[in-house]
Specification:
The protein has 18 helices and 22 strands. The longest helix has 16 residues. α12 crosses α14, α12 packs parallel to α15 and α14 crosses α15. It is of the alpha/beta class. The protein is globular and about 70 Å long. It has three domains: 238 residues, P-loop containing nucleotide triphosphate hydrolases (Rossmann fold, 3-Layer(aba) Sandwich); 154 residues, Rossmann fold; 78 residues, no CATH class. β21 and β22 form a beta hairpin.
Length: 503
């Protein structure tokens, strides 16, 4: 049976500052279809979506909605035609409540009085969240008090609450728990049954095969092809994305494990976690697993000085150190790559050069004056080493794709040559090719004696790159596993509180 297109994009071209990011790209999304859009970071996915939704104008090509040629000048115009987008970078206002975020610009009032109907908005917010299977978020809670994953659920609920004919989901599960992902997939299936179209942008291949009908792949701003999911394979899609065989997903570990570099004893933060103790050795990668809310991020933020510990001791090479601020951590050779790159990891409006240089001022300056030749050498070396896709180092970080922004975060910390590297969800929103590059960097650093602590919500990643694994549940260390004895079942049992290692 022939499908009816809802959106057709043909021959789309787009350039920024003379740099061509899209050339003759095509995308057709049928009514009631879940359509995957994939490609490595910098392939042009986000730009194509922004052209569809009126954020960017196109240089050439045509966009049709319901077979009608259209030019959206603003996202609001696209929304009025039933097209909504859930961005990878969250658009939540922390100072507003969940309800206020849900109805921002669409407030309900009592008739024409202009008086806000807070009760109706609160009730509608609760209903929208429950439809997603979320009952732990109170409508009156300040959004800024919620985790990244909970904020993501608000974004999804806000889009679903509108009468959309097409919803673009850009990395919608990046910060969600397995349970929340299951709930989201149920909602997506329900929307498909009602004839709503979904453009699903994700780097998680398992999700693509689980939920999508067709897939369109872009590479280096070019259209590679469109395939039916049931008629293709994982390897086929990887070849389309990267233009080559990827080889082994995780690098072989050759690092020699040395002496303990970082040790944490009985660390506690009131109401969040308690009695957390662990160590990590030179050349070792310690994976930290656990469900959302387990306290993983809070533990490493406390070690790094973002949070003030209630009790406990942090030692470096067996010597107790006091960290009251991130500056203290950096001076001790501890680097931290945060999961929230937009607010905590980058100066989003600054250039690539400035972001990388800022963390490395002591290396590239003398008597408070930056030595430009040293700065250029350092920045050029790091962005080349991490294969950052960019026009030039003076380009604003906000203009980069999410994955390339993450590479800039990593680059700025590699410059300080850390003894300890803490990574919180380092490959979130990163394509499969770039993931392997990040794994290789981690492998190289560990071989050079760096002690690495990595938090990840992706169990294959934890199992594939870690030497040891620590599992947290509700602020407690439940189990520590050697790589050779670990598997997904053991980790999940501990993460859900059904196994507690008393050792």
């Amino acid at each position: 049976m022939r499908q009816t297109p809802f959106v057709e994009m043909t021959g789309i071209d787009k350039a920024f500052d003379g740099n061509k990011v899209l050339q003759n790209v095509h995308l057709t999304v049928n009514k009631g279809e879940v359509h995957a859009l994939m490609g490595e970071n910098g392939a042009g996915k986000s730009t194509l979506i922004k052209i569809m939704c009126g954020v960017h104008s196109r240089d050439a090509g045509e966009v049709k909605v319901n077979n009608e040629p259209i030019v959206f000048k603003t996202p609001k115009e696209a929304e009025e035609r039933g097209i909504n987008i859930i961005h990878q970078e969250l658009n939540i206002i922390p100072e507003l409540t969940v309800t206020q975020n849900m109805f921002l610009g669409k407030e309900l009032t009592y008739g024409k009085t202009g008086i806000l109907n807070k009760q109706a908005m609160r009730k509608a917010t609760k209903k929208s969240l429950l439809e997603l299977g979320v009952d732990s978020i109170h409508p009156d809670e300040l959004a800024g008090n919620l985790s990244v994953g909970q904020q993501q659920m608000i974004e999804i609920a806000r889009a679903l609450a509108t009468k959309s004919e097409l919803i673009v989901m850009d990395e919608p599960t990046a910060a969600l728990t397995d349970r929340e992902i299951e709930s989201l997939f149920e909602v997506i299936n329900s929307l498909r049954d009602r004839g709503v179209s979904i453009i699903y942008v994700s780097h998680r291949m398992e999700e693509i095969f689980a939920i999508c009908d067709r897939i369109t792949v872009l590479r280096d701003g070019l259209y590679v092809g469109t395939e039916v999911i049931k008629e293709t394979t994982f390897d086929d899609i990887v070849r389309m994305m990267v233009g080559r065989e990827l080889g082994e997903r995780f690098p072989t570990r050759h690092a020699e494990i040395g002496d303990v570099v970082l040790s944490v004893e009985n660390l506690a933060l009131a109401g969040v976690f308690k009695d957390v103790s662990f160590h990590v050795r030179a050349g070792e990668i310690l994976g930290v697993a656990g469900l959302m809310g387990a306290g993983r991020t809070e533990v490493v933020e406390t070690i790094f000085g973002y949070r003030k510990k209630e009790q406990g001791e942090v030692k470096l090479h067996g010597k107790s150190i006091e960290i009251n601020h991130p500056v203290d951590a950096v001076q001790h050779g501890i680097a931290f790559i945060t999961e929230d790159r937009k607010d905590k990891g980058l100066l989003i409006d600054a250039s690539i050069r400035d972001n990388v240089a800022l963390t490395n001022l002591s290396t590239i300056s003398k008597s408070g004056v930056v030595i430009r030749s040293k700065e250029k050498s350092l920045v050029d070396d790091l962005v080349k080493r991490l294969h950052v896709r960019m026009a030039h180092v003076h380009q604003p970080v906000k203009s980069l794709s999410g994955g390339n922004q993450q590479k800039v975060v990593i680059a700025k910390w590699l410059g300080i040559q850390p003894q300890v590297l803490i990574l919180d969800e380092p490959t979130r929103g990163v394509d499969i090719g770039a993931k392997k590059e990040i794994y290789s960097i981690m492998n190289e650093l560990s071989e050079n004696g760096v002690a690495i602590v990595m938090i990840s919500s992706e169990l294959p990643e934890v199992l594939g790159i870690s030497d040891r694994i620590m599992v947290l549940h509700e602020g407690k260390v439940m189990r520590k596993l050697q790589r050779e004895e670990a598997d997904q079942e053991k980790i999940m049992l501990a993460a859900t509180g059904r196994y507690h290692d008393e050792k």
